[in-house]
Fold:
Amino acid sequence: MVNAIRRAAVLLAAASLLGIAGVAVAQQAPAQPDKEDVDVTSYQDWEVRCLKSSNPQQCEMTQLIKSADSGSPVMRVVLGYPKQIDTAAMIFILPLGTQLVPGLSLSVDGGQAQRIPFQACLPNGCRADLPVKPALMNKLKHGGKATVTIVGPRGKKMNLDISLMGFTAANKAIAE
Structure:
């Protein structure tokens, strides 16, 4: 339990240092850098965002997932390489009202799902953070889609598909 709390704290701190909390979230947050201070490059369905003012440059890759029904944003996925851990970290930001107890699950191309607990809910949404181990990174690089399953406010399961088109190229851009 203590290790899980420490890991969550490290990931949250790392995400803040990378600017993930500010750059990645669709809504404006006080700590968000000016749009002029962020370089954005598209790699098919992924965007790489880099802070121009940071030295060395801090970058992350992100994808905004929209509802198939309404077209409104329902989830933001962010992947970065925080200095505080020796692997990539993936962050899922979901809307307030998502049921927290079941957490979320992530599967790649219909494979075995991995459960991920929520760490915190902030004004922009609820966060679930995941250190990306080499086996998962390999699946993401070679997969077609990842699926996040959550339980919505009314108890209905929702599957949110993340396109992996452009994932490898975007990851290569931020991992260097």
Summary: The helical segments are 2-18, 20-23, 134-142, 167-175.
